[in-house]
Structure formats: C-alpha cells, structure tokens
Design brief:
The longest helix is centred in the first third of the chain and has 16 residues, at 2-17. This protein has 162 residues and is α+β, with helices and mostly antiparallel strands. It has four helices and seven strands, in the order αβαββββααββ. Strands 1, 2, 3, 4, 5, 6 and 7 form a seven-stranded antiparallel β-sheet that branches. Helix 1 (2-17) crosses helix 4. A hairpin with a 4-residue loop joins strand 2 and strand 3 (78-85).
Length: 162
C-alpha cells in the first residue's frame, strides 16, 4: 500500500511540474485517488484504449508525452510507472513488484492528479526533478536506484538517474 501511494505521488509530481503549456487546457475532471495495484477486471495486456474527451484533455494539459519511472529499494520493493500518450492513444501502467499491474483508464485516473502536481520542467536540475517526484508520489527517499525518462511535449527527451 505504501508503494502504491508512492507511485501516485511520483506521477503527480511529474504532472504538476509540467502544467505550463501553451494550450491553456486545465485538468478539472480528475479527482485525486490513492494509487492502487489491487487486482482489476482490466486485462494486463489491455493497456491501450482509444482516447475520449476526458483522456484527450488530460493529455493536452500535461507537459510531457512520455513518463517512465522505475525506483528500486534495498528491501527489493520496486515501483514502476509507465505513461505514453500520442495522437491516437494513451497508455498508463502502474506496477508495484509483488502486486498486480493496473493499466488503462484506471491507471490514468490514478496518475493524472499526481502528474498535475509535478512542478519540474525540462530546465529543472536532476536533483529538483527527483525531489519533486518523490514528494508528489509520497515515495521514500531511501531508494537504491532512481530512473526517470521523460519525453516533454516539445520532443525533448531527458533521463534522470540517481
């Protein structure tokens, strides 16, 4: 449960840091939910779904097209968040090692509010990004390895590692 909350916090950090965009679209439809990797009726292989208005608005409001986070802890707990958005589809997956993956709209619903809280952008230092992600997702700072790959809306790809 702690890891799930941490994953949500990371996503929110990333999203809030990238809320400045030129479209003026704001996310108002999403309410923050606690991250959960509890089993769902979603197929683990069914990560894709066609965009609808809610998803489309979320995608436009985010400052990035892709967000891949992997955090490993000494006690073997690991968290992974994958978010990819393009013109035809949006994919979101939350995976806490030892728990089932959640994907699709449920994962997007959980991640979007956290992403919107993120305050970093492509000009932020690596340390600022890491601190922002950990704080927003409520993750423990005693990780063994931190890896984040972000492709910003302008196409710039940046990797943050510690």
């Amino acid at each position: 449960m702690k890891t799930v909350t941490s994953i949500l916090a990371i996503g929110l950090i990333v999203m809030s840091g990238c809320t400045a965009d030129n479209t003026g679209v704001e996310m108002k439809d999403y309410e923050q939910q606690q991250l959960s990797t509890s089993p769902t009726t979603d197929s683990l292989n069914d990560m894709n779904y066609e965009t609808n208005e809610k998803v489309d608005n979320a995608r436009k409001a985010l400052p990035f097209q892709q967000f891949d986070l992997e955090i490993d802890y000494v006690d073997t707990l690991s968290y992974e968040i994958q978010y990819v958005s393009n013109e035809s589809q949006t994919r979101a997956v939350i995976h806490e090692i030892g728990e089932e993956k959640i994907s699709g709209e449920k994962a997007l619903d959980q991640l979007t509010p956290h992403f919107m809280e993120l305050s970093f952008d492509e000009d932020s230092s690596e340390q600022e990004v890491i601190e922002d992600v950990l704080q927003v997702f409520g993750l423990d700072e005693t990780y063994k390895e931190f890896k984040l790959r972000v492709i910003y809306s302008n196409g710039l790809e940046v990797e943050y590692e510690d």
